Amino acid sequence: MYPQSLTPVQQVDLAFIIIFGFSVFVLLVITAAMLWFVWRYHESRHPVPAQFSGNVPAEIAWTVIPSIIVMGLFYYGWEGYKALRTVPEGAMEIKVTARMWSWVFEYPGGKRGSVLVAPVDTPVKLRMTSVDVLHSLYVPAFRIKMDTVPGMETYAWFKADRPGEYDLLCAEYCGLKHANMITTVKVVDKAAFDAWLASTDAPGGKGRALMDTYGCISCHSLDGTPGVGPTFKDLYGAEREVALPDGTKRKVFADEGYLRRAFTDPNGELVVGYDPIMPSTEGMVPNEDMEQMLAWLMHGNEVGREEGRRLMEAEGCISCHSTDGSIIAGPSLKGLWNAPTTVLRDGKEQQVTADEVYLRAKIANAPSLGTVKGYDPMMPPYEHLTPEQLGAMVEYIKSLGEHAH
Amino acid sequence: MTGHDVNYDTGPDMGHDTGHHAVPLRINLLVWAALMALTAITVGVTSFDFGFLNVVVALTVATTKAGLVILWFMHLRYEGRVIRLMVFTAFVILAIAIGFTFFDVAYR
Amino acid sequence: MHEHRDYEGAKIGMWLFLFTEVLLFGGLFLLYAVYLHRYPAEFHAAGKDLSRIFGTANTIVLITSSLFMALAISALQRGKVLLSQRLVLLTVALAGVFLVNKFFEWSAKISHGIYPDSPALLKLPPGEMVFFNLYYLMTGLHGIHVIIGGAVLLYGWHLMRAGRVTPEHFVFLENGGLYWHLVDLVWIYLFPLFYLVV
Amino acid sequence: MSADAHDHPNFFQPQPGTKGGIASWIFSTDHKRIGMLYLYCIVAMFLVGLTLGFLIRLELIAPGRTIMGPQTYNALFTLHGVVMIFLVVIPSIPAAFGNIFLPIQIGAEDVSFPRLNIFSWWLYVTGAVLAVVSLVTGKGAPDTGWTFYVPFSAVTTTNVDVAVVAVFILGFSSILTGLNFITTLHRLRAPGMTWTRLPLFCWSLYATGWIQVLATPVLGITVLLIFAERVLGVGLFDPSRGGDPILYQHLFWIYSHPAVYIMILPAMGVISEILPVFARKPIFGYKMIAFSSLAIAFAGSLVWAHHMFVSGMSDTAVMVFSFLTFVVAIPSAIKVFNWVSTLYKGSIRVEPPLWYALAFIFLFSIGGLTGLVLGSAGTDVHVHDTYFVVAHFHYVIFGGLGFGLFGAMHYWFPKVYGRMYDKRIANWSCLIAFVGFNILYFPMFIIGLQGMPRRYYDYLPKYAEGHFISTMGSWVLAAGLLLMFWNLWRGIRHGKPVGRNPWGAATLEWMVPSPPPHHNFDAEPVVTHGPYDYTGVKPDA
Ligand code: HEA
Ligand code: HEA
Ligand code: CUA
Ligand SMILES: [Cu+2]
């Protein structure tokens, strides 16, 4: 009836009101009639019962009239449903991945997070799937709910009309921590949303992000692979052979001074084997940004640890693994580092040590390594994680303490 | 089925399995021959490719065969109204279950 | 308590039971229909891997056994008990032939590594996996019914010999026959769906 | 015992010339004994289910963990659902009261297949035992919910295999009951008992029987498929093997929606028996009520996917199934209107069964009308899988079937035992249970509308109030039900003996002694009037 002028929320609420209105009315009539008859025709007041056994016009009436009414109810319900399913042109698309027992939202541009951030007054289309079992994305405030089905994409859409925080719940039973698969929809104004989307809080916090921003990463890898420039991995404090502009070669340690000079005067000391192509940061990078990047290069591990913690919360690891030694669905991360672990693989037991290689492989593709003895094979693979992200997670696991022998 | 003596045609016949006349040998053999012929047809026809129609042809032949078995081998032709109506109901329900599922899968 | 025999009632009961069998298989036919709709090409390809010879042979065997069953009942109704007994035995024998056939067919497939959850099966395209999984489930369930049907008929034969199924009281055999025809009926659909849908 | 019960040994006593003992019960082919076996088993399972529901409420009294952890809770509601649905409500009225009274109501000596009848009870017991076994063996009690949705049910390591086998066996048992009733109603009606003189209870069992026969096999194959999925690795619902998990839901609901009518139709039949007796007046619109039972049974098989509006199925299917759902509501509406009109201009005698019947109409109407909210696609999206649904189905199942069952217990009690319970206590227990029921379940509608999902062992603080009130209600309800069961129990031992027809009813079971003798009738009765013709019928006690 008013398909364009109502939002889905209003359309659905209209259907609610109409159906409830009808129901309350019918219920009152029936109850009142029932009680009145019992009182009025009680044997003490009406000793001789009338002996009729039907009334055809009445029966036809209460077949036909309700039939017409329920068609009306159907119509309003269906209008509400259509509004929920018709996504306006040009809606912003956010990818949703559900897994036991957390949500991952991926925004245009590739940013990911476990809280749904959305701009106000903008239609947002959620394209959803699941990696394990059924879940259902439910935001009561927007009247939306849709199952996420493995191997299939479903969708829902909403348009929030005012900023605020709304609950987002999992409504399809999905096992142990179904009741905790709750997160928040943060609706913010458009400018704040754009700023948030642009800010790269990629692994490593600010300093790491700046590396991206200033394009360092395009030449320096973080994981040890050689590139146009030397890798940043294990750089701080490493021994370097450098060539000075006059051609003499020298051994230096990559201490703080060295790193500062490498930023401002990169070709002053050229690492042997590389070409002098790196531009100086002088005049291009503000001082405080440089400090941030330096800090990250030097204490990257600690930053990585923080990043690892954040990631593990966002990816939902923490919903299965505790950090305090208690057991949820999987082994606790506390004291896991370098712990001897028994793994069941193809029916055979294997002894492994939870070292860097194992942990990285385990997180990226848990099923391929078999399962830790005593646990169910329920950990999903996390193949989308980058090596840096895996590194950060391992750093965090390390920080939770080494296995006590 | 609003309820009028639906089963009166079967009559009370306690005591003896006074069923119906035995199906003549000739009819049984004819039905068998028809079933064999239909089998030959349905196998033979697969060497032609009608695309999707192949499925339709195969199922039509199968349903014809099923009809023959139900009507003669299973004596439904000789049964009363009650049993015939029941068989009909059962197949209607099966058709609904399969058919209505396609409201979903065909439009997804 | 006098024993009441209600011929018509027993038959109604049997038909009702047959409906439950029809709907039991119906659930699988539903899945088949949907997956055929979704993966026509894969079903086409996978169907080619099944031996049409085995399938056709088994169809002929079952149809013929159904004929013997029908003849057995006619014979009994006409009072030819011995003939009826022999026809029932023939029916059961054909059930055996069917099973042996099926055994060879399955073992051929299994020896090629195609069976549910097998590594070779898991390498096939999804549609073909579905096809073979359905193939094993549906023919397997049907096979179980062949075994049950055969056993029931054998028992019927025993009752005839013991004089408890007679030209006057033959409802047990008639109901066993109904069951046997149902087994045939299911196969009449399984055959084109798996061996001929190409 | 009543005076004329001395002429014959009643069915509680051993047959003349035989020994009694437990074997004469559990191998009996007497429909009344089988019905009693069912009744006691069902009441026992009902108590188990109620206790589980009670524990669920205790956990939910406050947010956070209160008396149990998530794994226990998940097993608990699964078990509560499985016990209630498969062990209590699906067999309940048909297998217990249907078995006892259907043959007598049509003037027959027994059902068509007495041996299948006891076999079906044995299957029931086997299923129940297996259900219990699934709790204590394997890797823990099943935690899938009574719906066993894949992929979760295919991957969880809890003891789902045994539980689905139990469900399969229970389904078989239910099929045999339905098959038996249909055949009995076609074949064994006494002379003069035409279809239009059939008591409405029998009509409702006839319709139920058809659903049992035609829908239950689909459940059978569905649970077999879960079994195959888990044990054989057949991936028919596994997306990574080309399967489609949504098809599981289709198969499951193709059975389980019609199953809700297996639950409610017999209760509706009981109500249709009780109302005219206490209004002393023929039921209003006999043919429409009988017909609407069949209509519900048939139309009920057209609407299953209304449980799947947000499952990811096509929008077309949503439209079709939403529309048909509204159509199914019409026959139920007809029944309600006819019942209310039956009271009009009657001469109403208020007794405990009538109170239960009135409570049934009120509670079922609330449940049914909220079913409209669920059937309407747009609104269902919001309330699907929330406590709104939980409230809906407790209103229809417990308020409907449950109160119908209690009504049946109070109505037929004097017939079965030849004694009368304390009517005053019966009235009070009905009132307390009714009040408790509404305190327990009504708040669930509200928190459901606010967005409280079901199957949550922990919840956000904003739902705390509703949950708290609800838990309080469960205590009131428990008090009412315990009072009721105690009163009935006491009635069995010490109740005042009554005659054949204490309510003055006109159906055949009231013509035989209470308790009925072994063979029901001395001579095959000849029926000459309708089931609700009270001219000349007087209560005899
Ligand atoms: C006894 C059992 C029973 C009965 C009788 C019903 C009856 C109905 N049910 Fe219910 N239902 C369940 C048991 C039952 N249900 C269960 C167990 C579930 C949850 C399963 C699970 O997920 O675990 C469920 C869930 C459920 C859903 C899915 C909800 C969801 O998960 O999102 C829906 C949706 O359409 C629904 C609808 C209906 C309707 C329209 C009726 C109708 O038949 C109701 C008809 C009755 C009336 C309408 C009231 C009486 C009439 C009047 C007072 C007259 C006036 C009315 C009109 C003019 C229309 N039910
Ligand atoms: C007949 C059906 C039936 C009945 C009668 C009940 C009865 C009750 N149910 Fe129901 N319930 C279901 C069928 C039923 N339920 C189904 C099918 C589900 C869905 C399961 C699923 O999601 O899979 C469900 C789910 C369900 C939930 C939702 C769980 C969740 O989603 O997280 C809740 C929550 O409150 C609940 C509560 C109750 C309560 C409090 C009762 C009360 O009626 C109980 C009141 C308690 C008493 C009356 C106790 C009296 C007795 C004693 C205290 C002890 C005496 C013991 C002995 C003498 C041995 N049930
Ligand atoms: Cu995810 Cu519930
Ligand atoms: Cu339903």
Q: Which sheet architecture does the biggest sheet of chain C show? A: none
Examine the secondary-structure arrangement and name the CATH architecture of chain C.
Up-down Bundle
> What's the average pLDDT of chain C?
91
- Main sheet: strands, sense, barrel of chain D: 2 strands, antiparallel
Helix and strand element order of chain D? HHHHHHHHHHHHHHEHHE
Shape of chain C: elongated
User: What do we call the CATH homologous superfamily of chain D?
Assistant: Cytochrome c oxidase-like, subunit I domain
Would you tell me the structural class of the helices and strands of chain C?
mainly alpha
Highest-level CATH class of chain C? Mainly Alpha
Q: How many whole angstroms does the radius of gyration of chain C measure?
A: 19 Å
What overall geometry of chain D do the principal axes of the alpha carbons give? Answer: globular
In terms of quaternary structure, the protein is: heterotetramer
Helical residues, percent of chain D: 55-70%
Strand order of the largest sheet of chain D: 1-2
Runs of chain C in which pLDDT lies below 50 for 5 or more consecutive residues are none
State the largest interface.
A-D, 82 and 89 residues
- First-to-last CA distance of chain C: 59 Å
- CATH architecture verdict of chain D: Up-down Bundle
Describe this structure in words.
- The complex is a heterotetramer of chains A (405), B (108), C (198) and D (541).
- Chain A folds into 4 domains: 3-85, Helix Hairpins, CATH 1.10.287.90; 92-198, Sandwich (Immunoglobulin-like), CATH 2.60.40; 206-299, Cytochrome Bc1 Complex, Chain D, domain 2 (Orthogonal Bundle); 305-399, Cytochrome c-like domain (Cytochrome Bc1 Complex, Chain D, domain 2), CATH 1.10.760.
- Chain A contains 8 helices and 16 strands.
- Chain A has helices spanning 8-40, 56-85, 190-198, 205-213, 256-264, 287-314, 356-364, 387-399; strands spanning 92-99, 102-106, 112-113, 116-119, 124-130, 135-139, 144-148, 154-158, 164-170, 183-188, 239-243, 249-253, 270-271, 340-345, 348-353, 371-372.
- In chain A, β14 and β15 (348-353) form a beta hairpin.
- The longest helix of chain A has 33 residues, at 8-40.
- In chain B, α1 (25-45) packs antiparallel against α2.
- Chain D has one domain: Cytochrome C Oxidase, Chain A.
- Helices cover 65% and strands 1% of the residues of chain D.
- In chain D, strands 1-2 form a two-stranded antiparallel sheet.
- In chain D, α9 packs parallel to α11.
- Chain D starts with 22 loop residues before the first helix and ends in a 44-residue tail after the last strand.
- Copper (II) ion binds at residues 257, 260, 306-307 of chain D.
